[in-house]
Specification:
12-stranded mixed β-sheet, 34 strands, 4 helices, mainly beta, 499 residues, 5-stranded antiparallel β-sheet
Length: 499
């Protein structure tokens, strides 16, 4: 933002930063500085702002909206311009997405270690590791805060720290220089020497304990283990001097892995790590371990129930999500793509929040809906659902079954959707109708089922259905024939009794 605004107290000119053609910047947090520490800054120091990013300078996406009010720390510490200093603001971590808007993300199957066909999560495996540090705990603390430092970087599996194999090469540092004095070396990062408080070596090596001190930020180290390692977590160990190690302790970092040493895949991002008190007060403390494998479901063939049970699933147009398992439960379904249910597969939508799906369900499986909210279909084609299980919540909107025979099983859920294109409609369970929320009209009528045939036993169940959330101001009923089921309602009249 320009130092001088345009005089408008409501809006200010935006600032665009172009890092250059074919260049990109990877970041998880940011900070900015006031132009100086003069008292006048109170009147023009930003207190609310929005950060947007773009790859083409045309389409922009918001990645953070933050606010930071003026405090007494920002007041003038000098009456002269020459004696004033900048004041840092931040770091500000990218605004995390709400769980209801999160997306499923997993790794290439080559990064997973062995497991059974039904394992939802497996240990990871990789040969190459890249640790990139973006910011430390106190980057403005002076000489003690130059760069970052740690005594050891470690991998874990099943709750135990792993030893780096003898094939591990000396790490390669990029984007910075290494402090080569005071017992600082890159090999210290992976030499399997992890001291603990009270060790004899601690006293013998003070004040120059074994460590790796990197002098600039952001920067990263590449570690080649020489062979694949199976792991499910990682940690790093602080050094023997709580004084300057606290300043240089990483606060924001990214860990990535690779199978070839060139193309790296991020597996963990930490934007604002706050160390516990013992880490700050005591030397040689383990930071972590940070679990990894539970973040990435194994989505290979026959993997069962890999998607988080409340994870929203959005299938884009021309995309296909194939459920090739006995059972898979996931969160609200949206998008216009294809949900493919292979033979006998069960795909259950957890309607824990409202969502609308306008795509297609293909295959020969069972589509189920549970939860406590509403799953809406907007012109969806459900020809691949031979059975529709309503286990909770409700369905709404419109959908067609492409002329196929369908069994609708009512197991606690309700329907308010207009379902058409059904061959033979078979109904089981206690039928529930989700009546529409209507206030502006006097009456309504919705054809809920249109089929070539509705057997007599199913007609009886449909006629005995319960009306869910029915207002006392309305009369509701249902008309069932051999081919249709129609829900109708009208406002109750007002009766006046005169004696």
């Amino acid at each position: 933002m320009p130092k001088w605004a345009d005089g408008n107290t409501e809006t200010y000119p935006s600032a665009t930063i172009d890092v250059g053609e074919n260049n990109t910047v990877t970041f998880s947090s940011y900070r900015w500085y006031s132009p100086h520490n003069h008292g006048a800054d109170k009147d023009r120091l930003p207190t609310r702002w929005k950060i947007e990013i773009s790859t083409d300078n045309v389409v922009w996406q918001t990645c953070d909206v933050s606010a930071c009010g003026w405090t007494t720390e920002d007041q003038a510490k000098s009456s002269s311009w020459t004696g004033a200093n900048s004041v840092p603001r931040g770091p500000f971590v990218m605004g995390a997405a709400d769980a209801s808007a999160s997306s499923l993300y997993t790794l290439n199957s080559s990064y997973f270690a062995g497991g059974t066909e039904r394992d939802t999560y497996r240990p990871l495996k990789a040969r190459y590791f890249r640790l990139r540090v973006y910011e430390t705990q106190r980057p403005d603390a002076g000489a003690n805060a130059w760069g970052w430092q740690m005594a050891e970087f470690s991998l874990w599996k099943d709750g135990k720290r792993l030893l780096w194999p003898i094939t591990t090469a000396e790490p390669v540092l990029e984007g910075s220089t290494l402090l080569t004095s005071h017992n600082s070396a890159l090999t210290n990062l992976v030499n399997n020497i992890v001291w603990a408080e009270g060790d004899a070596d601690l006293k013998d090596n003070w004040p120059d304990p074994e460590r790796t001190v990197v002098q600039r930020l952001p920067s990263y180290v590449d570690i080649d283990a020489g062979q694949e390692i199976e792991f499910d977590a990682y940690s790093f160990t602080t050094t023997g001097n709580p004084g300057n190690q606290n300043d240089r302790l990483p606060k924001s970092w990214r860990l990535a892995i690779s199978s070839d040493g060139s193309a790296f895949t991020p597996i963990d991002d930490v934007g604002a790590y706050v160390p516990p008190a013992e880490v700050l007060a005591t030397p040689y403390q383990t930071v972590g371990p940070f679990p990894l494998s539970a973040k990435f479901p194994y989505l290979d063939t026959y993997a069962a129930n890999s998607i988080g049970d409340a994870s929203p699933v959005a299938i884009s147009n021309n995309a296909t999500l194939k459920i090739d398992a006995d059972y898979e439960k996931f969160g609200p379904l949206s998008g216009a793509g294809v949900l493919d249910l292979v033979w006998n597969a069960v795909g259950e939508i957890n309607a824990c929040a409202p969502a609308t799906f306008s795509g297609s369900v293909t295959g020969e499986g069972t589509l189920a809906v549970c939860g406590d909210s509403v799953q809406t279909f907007d012109g969806a084609t459900l020809s691949g659902a031979k059975t529709l299980e309503l286990n909770g919540g409700a369905i709404a909107g419109t959908a067609s079954f492409g002329g196929n025979d369908v069994t609708v099983a009512f197991n606690g859920g309700a329907t308010g959707a207009a379902l058409s294109g059904i061959g033979t409609l078979t109904v089981t369970g206690d039928v529930k109708y989700a009546v529409p929320d209507i206030t502006e009209i006097e009456s309504c009528s919705v054809t809920l089922f249109t089929a070539a045939e509705i057997p007599a036993a199913s007609q009886e169940l449909l006629e005995a259905g319960e009306f869910v959330d029915a207002s006392r101001k309305w009369n509701w009923g249902v008309t069932v024939t051999g081919t249709t089921v129609t829900l109708y309602g009208n406002k109750r009249g007002t009766a006046l009794m005169i004696r």
